[in-house]
Structure formats: C-alpha cells, structure tokens
Amino acid sequence: MIGQGAVTPSAAGERYALLQRADSQHHHTSSEEKMSSHDSEDSDIHAFIDQLKLEELCRIASDIEGGGSCSLGGHTVGGFNIIQELVFQDGKVWLARIPRPDNCFEPEEATLSYAAVLRYLKKHSSIPVPSVYDYAAASDSGNTFGTSYILMEKLPGHDLPTFDDDSDDDSDDDDLAPVQLSAARKIHEQLTDIIIELASHRFESIGSLREDPEGNFTVVQYCDPTYTSQPEERTTAFHSLDPHYRGPYRSITDFYSSISVLNLTQETTGPGHKHSPQMIADYKALARLAPKIIIPEFDNGPFVIGHNDLTVQNILVDDEFNITGIIDFPGNTVPLPSLCVFPWMFHDNLSGPVVARDAYKEVFISKHSDNGSSALQSTSVRRQLIESAITRNQFELALLGPMISLVLPDLYESINGEKYVQQGTGDGATA
After folding, report:
1. What is the pLDDT of residues 185-209, one digit of tens each?
2. What backbone torsions phi and psi does residue 332 show, to the nearest 5 degrees?
3. How many structural domains is the chain composed of?
4. Parent domain of 11
5. CATH number for the domain harbouring residue 36
6. Looking at the domain assignment, is residue 195 inside a domain?
7. Is the dihedral of CA 386, 387, 388, 394 positive or negative?
8. How far is CA 42 from CA 39, 48, 100, 146, 225, in A?
9. pLDDT tier, 174 (very low <50, low <70, confident <90, very high otherwise)
10. Which domain of life is it from (predicted)?
C-alpha cells in the first residue's frame, strides 16, 4: 500500500444519495445503466459486494487516523465504482472507492493512476481535489482488503446546478435571471482558471500517471478507465499489442494511431459475434481522419493532465457557486488540445445558463491569466484550440469509446464535406 491523497459516477437516481458524487455517469455511457438493470448483472455485482471485507477498510482507516473509531456508512453502486462511506466517531467522513470488476477497464491500473493524479494535483496545484489517505492495487502483497481501493476525503459541496427552467425552483421572480447569469459566469471563469492551471503541469508523454514509493511521478503505459464496452475484451486486446502501441506515447500521431490499432485488434480478435465488417470499415475510416484532426504545432506536446468527464456531478460547488471540488479525473496525461475542449456538461443534453456553450466560450477565450507557466496563458492559443474543440471531441469520442457508429457519419461529413457511406465491407467510402 502507498499511504496518504480522492473521488466518483453514479446512476441518475443516486446523484443526491448519501455520497456527494459516487461515480460519473456520462451521457455517452448510458448503456451501462441499461446493462446494470439486467438481473444476472445485478446478481454478479451484489455477489461481489457481499464478499468485500468492508470492515477491513474501517480498520485501515482507523489505523491511519490514530485509532479513532470508524464504522460503515452508506454506499452507492455506480457505473464503474462502488463508493462506501467510512464514518468516524467525531463525524468526519471518508470515501472508499472500489472499482467494479465487471465494468472497469484494468481496475488495478485505473486505481493507481487515479490516486496518482489526485496526489499530484494536491501537492502541486491549487485545484480543489480530494486528499488521498491510502490506496492499494488488488495484487499488492500488503493489501489486506483483497481488492483495489482508494481511501479519500469527502469534499464539501453539492452538484453544480445548471439553472434549468424546468428545475424544482418554483420562484417566478424575474430578478433571478441576472443572478443566475452572474453565477453561471462565475462558474465559467473558475472552470477556465482550472483548465489553465492544468495546462501548467507538463509531461513528456501521453499515458497514465504513477507515483513511486518515494513520491516521484512518472508516466507509464496508457489506461483509459472510462472505456465502457466489453472491458475484458478491451484489456485482452490491449495486452496482446506490441509494447510500442501500449504507450506511453511521444506524439498525438503516435497516440491516435496506436488506439486505432487497439480498436481494430479488439474488433478482429474478440469472440465470434465480433469481426463486424461494418465496424472494421468504420475504424479504418476514422483512422484516416486523424491527420485532419491533429494540429501540427501541438503534435509533440505539451502533454498535460486531462479531465474528459467534467459533468455537473463531477464539479462540486457551495451555495455561493464557488467550486469546492473537481472529482473523477481519468488519471491520464493527454495532448493539450484534448484538454482544451468544451467540458462534458456542455454535451450532456442539459439546459440553463451554466451549460450555455457560447457564454462559456467567450469567457474561456477572453479571461486574463497571470499563469506564466501555463500552455494556455495566451488567449490566442485558447481561441485556436476552442474553435476546433467540437470536431476534436467527436473524433476522440469515436476513437476512445464504443460510439463510433453514431459519431462517424456526421464527423466524416463535417471534415470531408461529403457523406460517409457505411458499406459494411472494405474501408468505408463516400457517396
């Protein structure tokens, strides 16, 4: 175990449960909610929970706290993780984050990289992330709990409101509109500052962050804990690749091409129901779009800590709309352009001034920054990257997730100016 540094996705009905934010549930991962409703899968996850030695987490937490009494609080089962409250006698609450073995791609690697990112940011930044008190991989010889876990701080605050007109607020006071607009701008300014600060922490390659026993941080081979389709098949395909394709990657070109190889490997070596000519054609067509997505001057860096899941549930605020927590980092270093996109809450079918894309874009481009170490201090760089953000986000969504068949046709047409014809054979074609 590596001692002392936290976070969360839960199903929609659990968002305001005992835990502040148990597990991030993307709009584009809603299929997981459908999957988790199946009786067999419910049975599997309940069986996994039943065999967990949760009292051992209390013992570990009590030892870290110097012997203070600890008991189990509520728990939430999210798309990727189980979040268990650990309640101390003095009222303090910690969260234990336990990856689900059925849905999480490489749960050990995801645990180690997530803990490393939180500990790095807590040590080197002013971004409000949870403290990690302890963490361990399932394979660690000293792990008495028996499976991977992180013990972390439960941050104050609540989910970010969007001021949707359909919210539960029954006030008809017209004076609320300017107040809401002001609060939305305050949120946009804070998010911009956070993204600018993330861009000040530069790394030599794209991959997963790790911390060694001496507290040094390095980038190792890639792991994407947010991949949601057939995680076991994805893991098998990933480990069958030549090490070069597993990272870390020294350029965006290398990163995109390696993930393209992974996608094709997963599609062509999986169980018998795979080997779809249509999917193979789609992946090949997507790979050919990569050179049109890459901005040459950023191909070789800088590489920074990314967060591709900034939903309203992963941004905690107080009643004055001060951001009190940013949670659920994937744990990866990414190309600067991958950081410089619209946060996921702008793609999440929400409404209200907080998710008004044009208002955020204006703030993101124009906000002054004194952070001279940030690759995004320049407003011209921010403008350049945000102008191409939607296309880049769509490309990476198709490349890194299971949504290619939904994303590719529109993406292909927007880039090439002609329709993509899904033939089901060959490399894909245009009309």
Report:
1. 999 999 999 999 999 999 999 999 9
2. -110, 155
3. 1
4. 2-156
5. 3.30.200.20
6. no
7. positive
8. 5, 10, 12, 21, 21
9. low
10. Eukaryota
